[in-house]
Amino acid sequence: FGASDIKSVEAEIPDEQKTAWKKHTASGFKNKEDFETTLARSLYNCDEGAAYGGTALAFRDRLIIDWNKTQQSHTFADQKHLSLEFLMGRALDNAMLNVGLKDVARDLGFRMEDVIGIERDAALGNGGLGRLAACFLDSLASLDYPAWGYGLRYRYGIFKQEIINGYQVEVPDYWLDFNPWEFPRHDVTVDIQFYGNVRKYNDDNGRQVSVWENGEIVTANAYDVPIPGYNTPTTNNLRLWSSKAASGEFDFQKFNSGEYEQSVHDQMRAETISAVLYPNDNLDRGKELRLKQQYFWCAASLHDIVRRFKKSKKAWKEFPNQIAIQLNDTHPTLAIPELQRILVDNEGLDWDTAWNIVVNTFGYTNHTVMAEALEKWSVPLIQHLLPRHLEIIYEINLHFLQYVERTFPKDRDMLSRVSIVEESNPKMIRMAFLAIVGSHKVNGVAELHSDLIKTTIFKDFVKIYGQDKFTNVTNGITPRRWLHQANPKLSELIASKLGGYDFLKDLTLLHKIEAYADDKQFRKAFQDIKYANKTRLANYIKETTGVSVNPAALFDIQVKRIHEYKRQQLNIFGVIHRYLALKAMSPEERKKMQPRVSIFGGKAAPGYWMAKCIIHLVNEVGRVVNNDPEIGDALKVIFIEDYNVSKCEIIAPASDISEHISTAGTEASGTSNMKFVLNGGLIIGTCDGANIEITREIGEENIFLFGNLAEDVEDIRHQHTYEGVLIDDGLQKVFDAIHSGMFGHSDEFSALTNTVVNHDHWLTSADFEAYCKTHDSIDEAFKDQEAWLHKTILAVARMGFFTADRCIEEYAEMIWNVEPQKLKQNGA
Length: 828
Ligand code: 7GP
What we know:
Helix content: 40-55%
Radius of gyration: 28 Å
Largest sheet: 9 strands, mixed
Number of helices: 35
Strand order of the largest sheet: 7-10-11-4-1-12-13-17-18
CATH superfamily of the domain at 553-791: Glycogen Phosphorylase B
Strand content: 15-25%
CATH class of the domain at 553-791: Alpha Beta
Number of strands: 24
Bound molecules: N-[ethoxy(oxo)acetyl]-beta-D-glucopyranosylamine
């Protein structure tokens, strides 16, 4: 790739196409034929899609060379990240940036933004958990760790959200229509078994052997996605499994005799396994197909890992020294009994030796304490689908309970509390408990969260295993995507002061810009960048919603999955409260108020009715407020449709204030809080998740905290149960306005108000007054723009801790015991 290559292509382009070509192409195609044969279209036909295709394929080729070298050099010792979700977003921009060619493309004068905008997001995740996995892949490669991600290649990622008449409508996401970033590995397949029965016999040595047989076979087919590190040749691999009918399963007899439908039935059934991502965030629904997905992906990944290990010809006891497997929440917990099964049934190891290997291989990251998200699978379902695994889980539980019994001989209650098998009807397997028992380390994702898991849901396990098994790794984000890519101008400004882009690999260097917090010129540049980013978002809002918003207004943003615990309802009630206050003012008074744009975005799980009501209310309030001539620019309310990773890249740099207002003790960490502050916005937040550590790092004078503390939440809920809910006066006025039909549909919204009145589990009323007052103080603070700039610059300067690179180093040292392996410049 280089200017001369581009020129040689250019020479052959007819004049009328040159502009389009020049505008869009930064490809590495050597000549016109190269382009035409690769894309199977003529240059005369080069539209934006083709330009994207050409550019993407060219960069992909660049990556493959480094990817091959990396894979050759990282033969055996590996860190494996099992995650059912990888919310990658777009790849082209990231590839150009990591390979270091973005500036070349820019220097040549091409409009890369348009080309980049063509790409569909790889949206193989719901929210925070999936995006964290994607940030970790970026850091692992950037820091030269030998690591693979293993996931599922969903044919449909998270649904596309459309807002029709104010309601969320779900539309399928056909993201695979054109995906140049994956390589099908037709030679890498694994046959996965389901159902069947277990046969026992004694071998010649009198040892009992279990054989799982007569099952149904589905084939897992590997698709590989290269993960380029930033400013390093290390290019890691994300292996995604796709399901298809096992060869020989297709019933030719039926097909030939005309029963077409029946004959393709098995095929479709098999392909269904990797067809859809379950669109639930922080919610467990216990569907059989989901369990099938989990086993399919765990079994395929483990088979792959074990196959590579066996090639090394090392002894089994070396397995945990060579391989560390991190479980991204409990979704991959079946990998624990599966590895035990492979070692005992297939490899003939004795139980204890095998178990020792298993425990030392796995680490488990917990991402939530909320009961509704803690996975449980019914025993009859596992029995039916995975009979041998159920036996193994029972045996693991037996060994574990015997140990507990020996350690706490008098505590009968303890046994039922910690048993992996819940004695309910039907009996259930508690996946988090299985994950703890089968791992050597368990971590939470922010300090408060890691403390909470130790004192609440996993309290007994701390008694059993001791403190050392439990640790914390506070989440982080990749500064490559979330600063440099999303906010290139800010990144450039910082680089101009730090003498280069080293901070993208050592984010703590940001602290050096503290020195510029009072520098007039720097402040002005910082402010101009924010304004430009707000203008970009304002344009996007105009294009997509038709509403004009003023970039000079305070942009107040809450974008994340819609969930009662995240409390978008508190936000929209606060907006209504503000609207009522503005309506009650004289025009003169209103003019003195700080103009605001309240921006919401996020998907509701399709079956989550209350979350859908919240979306509907936001849209209805927007319809009324945005069309109220008395209000004008004083308040605008926007719902951004189909929030996803690439939209967040436009939204995060444009905030003045972002909202992270979960009921204390419910948001494990949050990661968008980090993105917003890193991009020069402040936070309104509760003392929850990583907000607490952000406060510690940036200083409490640079964050707007409010609300009840985690330690008081249970008492308040108890009060609600026994004394009823006290409805705040301001909130009552909001409810009255809703019930009066001010925003239409008052019946539909009564579910939202009733849950507050009846039990207020999420403390909306208890936190309402403090929330509104905090917003008032934000208005005040924002008026003093110089002081505001001072705060935001200091906050950016102090965000170094929240890089995902730091997380990866902590995991590597505390949990995986792996070292980086730099590629030699000449390859291998
Ligand atoms: C999320 C947590 O809700 C969020 O606080 C955290 O920042 C993120 O994980 C990354 O650690 N959890 C999920 O997305 C989720 O679905 C249930 O958790 C398994």
